[in-house]
Amino acid sequence: MRKTLICSILALGLFGVGCGKREEGGAPPKTEPAPATSTKSTEPVKIGLAAPLTGSYAKIGNDMLNGAILAIEQRNAAGGVLGRRIDLVKRDDQGEPKVAVAVARELTGAGVACVVGHFNSGCTIPASEIYNDAKIPAVTPASTNPQVTDRGYKFMFRVCGRDDQQGTVGAKFVAEELKLKKVAVLHDKTTYGQGLADEFKKTAEKLGLQVVYYGGFAKEEYDFRSVITAMKDVSPELVYFGGIYNQAGRLVVQMKQAGLNALFMSGDGMIDKEFIKSAGKDAEGVYLTFGPDPAQVPSAKPFIDGYQKRFGEEIGTYSVYGYDAANVLMTAMEKAGSVDGSKVQEVMHAETFDCAMGRIEFDQRGDIKASYYVMWIVKDGQFAVWKK
What we know:
Structural class: alpha/beta
CATH architecture of the largest domain: 3-Layer(aba) Sandwich
Shape: elongated
Number of strands: 14
Mean pLDDT: 91
């Protein structure tokens, strides 16, 4: 309000100078409205980011953050959005749903135009209700539970796949490529972990696989001996785990120590080098589902080079998805010619976006239209796309 008043006074002052220059006896100047540019906002555009920046999932959360930072710095260097600088407003949701809700309220209260986040589906789902009510577009780089987009919230999007897709890919691989019959299914009791495990189990049973064990444990648990003993009694050929890398590494090691020599498979929450560090030699031969390898995507090379130059390290697992999420939002604002959330989400549903991981187009739910998941394997101490 104060800024508008000052602008008005300045405009009147300039008009007065113009009147003083009128020639004696000349016609009075016409009163015209101020040019549209005089009311154009020059305030920075605020983009929120919500991720687990501390706690068990901090590595992935900070990878996402770095990707978004790079995207915003590059956009600012090119003139910002609609001629306005972008400011990043980051918040740590600690990977906890209750904290995520508080963070979502903080971000909406801070006046962000849009949000990159969250990482965990259990955080994204309740937080998205707040963003949707506030008409603030949000793009998650990593939340894969179907309920993220299946509730009809037009302001919620994701640049990753869905668990009903990756659970299906995993189960089909077990049945058709590995040709196994007996599987055990575990999860970490989170929205993401249990949702993914259930999708795998559902498809596995449809394909004729025998689920000989199904169970879960708290995401804070690191002693899996009782669960492993129970699984040994039913002799699974493969153990499927819906969860995150911090537990997966110890689970694999404890399975080997107990003499349970079943193969191991998980989803996208496991693809982080911390898994290989914690599992050591026992990580070899582990399977998991994830998106394509960015190193094999030509459009991702400028991002990879820029990331390594900016941060002095290799890209993290979700760095490119944080980068693409931020760029989609900024590009949508440019295409909309506005930072108004309603206009921005309309553009996001209607347009295509050229991103580091390729061209992205959203369906009416906010999901990407292209297929996403491929099978990976740990080979020679590194994650690699599986090949026959």
